[in-house]
Amino acid sequence: MQSTQKSTATASIIESMRNITIVILLILPFGQALAGEDTSAEIEFFEKRIRPVLVTKCYECHSSIASDIKGGLVLDSRNAIRKGGDSGPAVVPGKIADSLLYSALLHDSFEMPPDEKLPQNIINDFKLWIESGAADPRDMPPNAEQLSAQIWEDAFQSRKDLWSFQAPQEYPPPEVSDTNWSKLPIDRFVLKLLSNNGLTPSTSADKTTLIRRLSYILTGLPPTRQEIADFVSDETADAWPAIISHYLSSPHFGERFARHWMDVVRYTDTYGYEWDVPAKGAWRYRDYLIRAFNSDIPFDQLIREQIAGDLLPEPRINKELELIESHIGPMFYQLGEHRHGDSQEFEGIHQEMIDNKVDAFSKAFQAITIACARCHDHKLDPISQNEYYALAGTFMSSRWISRTIDLPRRNAEIKNRLSSAKAELRDLLVKAWIDDVKSNINISALDAIQPATKLPIGDINHPWNEIHKLEDSQIADKWSELRETYRKTDLEAEQYNRIHYILVADFRQGDIEGWFTDGHGIETISKSGEFTVHRGDQFVKSLLLPGVATSRLSTKLNGALRSPLTEEFSGFFLHALTSGGDFSAQRTVIDNAFLCEKQQYYAEDRYSWKTLNLYKEEERKIFLEFTTKTSNPNFPPRWGLGKKLTESMETSPDSWFSVSKIYMAQGPGSPKKRLTAFVQLLESGTPDSKKSAAILYQQWLATMVKVWGEGSATDDQIQVLNNLLQTPWVSKSATDERLKPMVDTYRSLESLIKPPRTVNGLADHDPGKDYRLNVRGSYYELGDPVPRGYLRLFSKAGTDSVAFRSSESGRLELANLVASAKNPLTARVYVNRVWQWLFGTGIVDTPSNFGELGGRPSHPRLLDWLTLRFVDSGWSTKTLVREILLTQTWRQSGKVSAEALRIDPSNRLLHHFATRRLEAEAIGDAMLASAGTLDRRLYGRPHNPFRTAEDEMKRLFSGPVDANRRRMIYTKVTIMEPAKFLATFNSPNPKIPTGARDVTNTPAQALTLLNHPFATEVARQWGEQVLTRKDTEPLARLEAMLERALSRSISSAELSEWESTLFKLANLRNVPENEIMKNQELWSDIAHTIFNTKEFIYLR
Question: Mapping DSSP to helix (H, G, I), strand (E, B) and coil, where does residue 990 land?
């Protein structure tokens, strides 16, 4: 009561001082006012105190542009407000009794605003303003645009003063009367508020309670019996700091805190909607988080990596794993639901996905709701609609691609050895093939493969096909006729191609200017003479044309080749000379779509023209991408696109493509084939018999093989040799004795290649593009482009939104703004999250909303103190965690007094440690740990959750019933039909960011622990495991099981109850007493019963 009276008195004093200040402000220059001149002080008072109220509370009904002006009253200019409406003048300067506006504000005769009376302090402002002369600089009423700007400016000015938008202040820890409880600063802040409210802290928890609590909260796992014994027996003052250090250094700390952050960023392994296609590399992002938290990477660094890790001037390198850690961070953007298969196919889908990115970004890092400004200026916070689209433009200026995260050195040595081995193998092939050509090409061999019908011109057998039925006397004339036909056809092809096709890209000479590459399969241009060593007996299937080829050394090496983003392709047909296989693809990405279904999958060893129809895509920006499956952000494809995939096909790294050149044309027909190599054959002589023609064939092909071996074969010659490889005339067999030793050596080396590691992310390949404002959020009504940038709230001047200077996306500037110690939200938001993860509730109980609708801090000074300490510590998560855990506040027991419940029923003042249920993952992990079957290895691909029914079309496959005995963090998170066991216990919705999980108590949870196959299977495994113990009496076994599950000593009374339960179960199963210790089903029942106790799934 005394505290309430004091606060009321203080508020009264503050209000009185405020009014005195205003009066002085207005009276000092009053002489000038009497002379009819409005002073700067009076104008300032009007602008700060009067105009904002008129704009926000009155203009809707009483402005010159209002759709329905009430009572003929207009208040948006000086003349109008003094003229008044139907009832007379609204404001008479100096005469409060004659000013109807003041009367209306009092709700006397009229009521303005009609919904509710304004606060008295605002009414007092109007009274002072009118009595002092009603200074008003508004000569003209505003137009609609000016009014909108005024309304927003007034709203911004009033909203920017919210507590969370102010820089954290340095508050010294308060003095407290009880210094015995704790001398730590955090405890002093807590104790001060408790004392102010007539409360005292709870007693300290016992050591077994503390270690179980600590182990679960820091690792998500129960403590081991040895850890409990060591801690309980340690009576030194260092026992508590030591056990904190022990768990902070545990590799499972990273798993625990990574899972917390995965909630915040809406982690998912799939993209949901109809097909639930995989989110490539999501699990690598999960592992990246685990490593980051275990290594205590400064959180500002982690923020920069997630926002712009691909753009950091000094990327973070993991030398041990040979990967670029910071390049994994932007997978953050690629999480969440991506809805329809091709995001640009239907209006609205793409915009919804942008909204998801903006929402996740702003809630995760800033705890504000920028996405609420998509259709209009934010209704409560200082965030304009323009700023939403400034951020959207920032995100949409980057390409949504898959990125290789391996260091180039990862396979460098093996690649060098393969290159040397390849040269030796090529020399052997040249020798073998020349021998084969000379031995195998003769009249009989050539005749044997001739079809009954005519072959097309350009086939390696076409010349022989034309002469093989002729008499020798006819051959010379026919040969000369063929020579002229080939010359003419080749010339016509050259002229036709020159007229009808524009060369877009020619990679044969190494010219890839303006194109972008990724992956370690295309670090250099493939030159003439290269070939791919394939699996299987036929190890050479085709030779590579000069150009970009990922398989020059191995089909296991990945790569992506991306074109410039351009409108030049729109309205045309593109023709690319390519080959490829094993789900390599050509992607056509329109308007930077998030997901792209315009993909052609390659399955041809021989080169052919791939035609791409962009005729209907006029005025749209497009980029092409040629990619192996490991570098394809949209692989594997949804059901119906591409051939059916097995799991081994999906995970195998083998995939390859080659592209030589690309033409653009107005029609669908591909360029005509050049016949230069055939002209060389026909010009090499004029045979007078089939025998001499066969010799010319031999010489022609042998010469081409030799030229190929020297690395100087032309494109036409390579195409002829590829035709040769389709015949039985030359050996391609890995068992050929001439080739086998070198092929075996090559394959042995190739087996040492480490498969590529890729993850979806972003790339700034193009100039930044400002996004057009969607009027009222409608994608059918587009406004002007909004310059890329960030919130005015964080600008130095505070007058305009932060515009990015970068010619690219601006993500790096955004990352630096967000990860700055000067940003009032970032560190404060994260500190609050860590507090929430440790206590169950944050100092602000809405961890992802620090805006007007969010909660207010229970301990504002403590939050600021912790925030500044966190920044000073170098943004160290572990230092922050340690400082909180050392407190008496965290070590309180769960005992609570009736008085504390009455005064603070929600425990916002922290008078005890609130009992909390384990999260879904921790429950599953605890079951496996208790059963002794938990596989504690870190990292790796996720496993499918157990399902009673599979849906192949939606990629909903079933995994092991016991979750592969791994921690639940490694269970695949699918948007469609998430793991039912986890979902029942409130695992988060992966479509949206989750700051705090729901905690429900439903019958379904009890039924799940009772009946779910996971629960029954793990109980069965525990029952099997305990049979391996050498116990001779049930009590010893019961005690061991209960101590393992509950992490505490078990009283004799409890053991007696459990023994009684055991015998009842034995009776139900008809198990005789002498068989109890050997019956697995009976002990599985006990294990299952333990899982169903409340104590097992709750923390005290």
Answer: coil
- Say if residues 220 and 252 touch (Cβ distance below 8 Å): yes
The model carries a pTM of 0.89
Q: How far apart are CA 544 and CA 659, in angstroms?
A: 9
| Cis peptide bond prior to 785, omega within 30° of 0 | no
Determine the pLDDT at residue 130.
95
Long-range Cβ contact pairs of 76-81 (< 8 A, separation 24 or more): 76/138, 76/141, 76/142, 76/147, 77/138, 77/139, 77/140, 77/141, 78/136, 78/137, 78/138, 78/139, 80/141, 81/136
Phi-psi domain of 788 (left: phi exceeds 0; alpha: psi -120 through 50; beta: other): beta
Q: Are 358 and 351 in contact (CB under 8 A)?
A: no
pLDDT at 885: 99
Bond prior to 860 in cis (omega within 30° of 0): no
CB atoms within 10 A of CB 151: 18
Domains in the chain (CATH in brackets) are 15-158 (no CATH), 160-249+821-919 (no CATH), 300-405+764-820 (no CATH), 411-502+675-750 (no CATH), 506-665 (2.60.120), 924-984+1001-1100 (no CATH)
Q: List, in sequence order, the alpha helices (H) in 249-342.
A: 251-264, 282-295, 299-308
Dist. CA 582–CA 635, nearest whole Å? 12
CA distances from 287 to 101, 270, 303, 938 (A): 64, 16, 16, 8
Tokens of 858: 């229970």
Q: How far apart are the first and last CA of the chain?
A: 33
Residue 152 pLDDT: 85
For residue 632, the SS3 value is coil
Counting beta carbons within 10 angstroms of the beta carbon of residue 378, is it exposed (0 to 12), middle (13 to 18) or buried (19 or more)?
Answer: buried
Q: Which residues share a beta bridge with 590?
A: 622
Alpha-carbon gap, residue 382 to 824, rounded angstroms: 14
Using alpha carbons, select from 496, 511, 668 the residue that is nearest to residue 574.
668
Extract the tokens encoding 942. 């996720």
| Residue 392 contacts residue 358 (beta carbons within 8 Å) | yes
Distance (Å, whole) CA 559 – CA 507: 15
Cα distance between residue 816 and residue 853, in whole Å: 27
Burial class (CB in 10 A: 0-12, 13-18, 19+), 94: middle
Closest CA to 791 of 309, 399, 312, 394: 394
Identify the sign of the CA torsion 621, 624, 630, 631. Answer: negative
Helix (H/G/I), strand (E/B), else coil: 769: coil
Tell me the pairing of strands 516-518 and 560-562.
antiparallel
Residue in 1067, 1059, 1050, 1049 with CA at minimum distance from that of residue 1086: 1059
pLDDT at res. 340: 66
Question: b or e along 857-878 (b: 16 or more beta carbons within 10 Å of the residue's beta carbon)?
Answer: bbbbbbbbbbbbbbbeeebbbb
**What does the chain come to in residues?**
1100
- List the one residue out of 663, 610, 679 whose CA is nearest residue 497: 663
Chunk the chain into consecutive blocks of 10 residues (it has 1100) and report each block's average pLDDT, rounded to whole numbers. Answer: 39 43 40 49 87 86 86 92 93 94 88 88 93 91 82 87 96 91 94 96 97 98 97 96 98 98 97 85 98 98 98 97 98 88 73 92 97 92 95 94 95 95 96 94 85 84 88 93 95 94 88 89 86 93 94 95 84 89 91 82 88 73 92 84 74 93 90 93 93 93 95 92 92 95 96 96 94 87 93 77 87 97 98 98 98 97 98 98 98 96 97 97 98 97 92 85 96 93 95 95 96 97 94 94 96 96 95 94 97 97
- Residues of the chain by 3-state class (helix, strand, coil), percent to 5: 45, 10, 45
- Helix ranges, 994-1033 (H): 1003-1011, 1013-1026
The tally of CA atoms less than 13 A away on the side-chain side of residue 632 is: 32
